[in-house]
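Dear V.,

Thank you for sending over the compound details. I've combined the ligand you provided, magnesium ion, with the protein sequence from our construct and run the structure prediction for the complex. I'm sharing the raw inputs here so there's no ambiguity about protonation or stereochemistry in the SMILES, which I know was a concern on your side last time.
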Amino acid sequence: MGSKVSSGIGGLDSMLKGGFPEGRAILVLGEPGTGKTILCAQYLYQGVKGGDRAVFVGMNEPKDRFLSEMLDLGMDFAQLEKTGGFSYVDATEVRRIPEQARVGRIPVGGRELGVVNLIDMIQESIEKVKPKRIVLDSISDLIFRFPLIEDRRPVILDLVEAIQSSGATTLMTSELLSTGDERSLQPEEYLSEGVLLLRTLRKGGRTVQVLKMRGSDVDTSPRPYSIKGNGLEIYATEEVY
Ligand SMILES: Nc1ncnc2c1ncn2[C@@H]1O[C@H](COP(=O)(O)OP(=O)(O)OP(=O)(O)O)[C@@H](O)[C@H]1O
Ligand SMILES: [Mg+2]
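Below is the predicted structure of the protein with magnesium ion bound, written out as structure tokens.
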């Protein structure tokens, strides 16, 4: 069995029997507001504190907003950036590329251009920072622009490949589209090496579940968690009712 990389959250490490498998791309799938961004931030923050270099590629929010939201939760990323070891890549512009874009005078598909730009940004930051940990938050807007599964697959594969070439252990977030027992699997679930699912139960309460983690023995039961002033707390020994 390969080595594990701590998730930065004690309860999650217990569920993962040590942490994420090193060098893999893991999907953090969840409904809006379930804590995907915070979970990923904790993963990077604890990692950098422990001496790993890290990159956060943010497609949902500009850097300032990320820094201040995480500071509210006790994570001072600005400080980590100053001392080195952490870099925030603002990729919000990728979403703003119109469907019909131009390179010079030449019309090009905006959604394809968005993917190429993002992969460029990721590769550039990998060369500069040489991270051990990467977060991509989130891939939804980008991949949902490709409604056909056969178009979406190569986009996800190219993204995963670009990241994996770095050897970094990566978390990618994506929005959960349907819920319930008969929900349809999303292509990014097939194409990631591990999947964490974050849910809000109808009666309130939150659950986290490891849906898959290739090559690892993990706890696949849903476990309760809460979000507090210092981030996610996961109760790895408690049952969900
Ligand atoms: N200081 C805090 N104390 C308690 N809970 C908080 C605090 N800050 C944020 N939260 C909770 O965290 C949630 C947001 O977390 P986060 O932004 O990580 O979710 P997300 O899954 O990334 O959402 P989105 O889908 O909108 O990107 C909020 O719904 C809120 O309930
Ligand atoms: Mg988010």
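A first observation: The longest helix spans residues 110-129.

Warm regards,
I. M.
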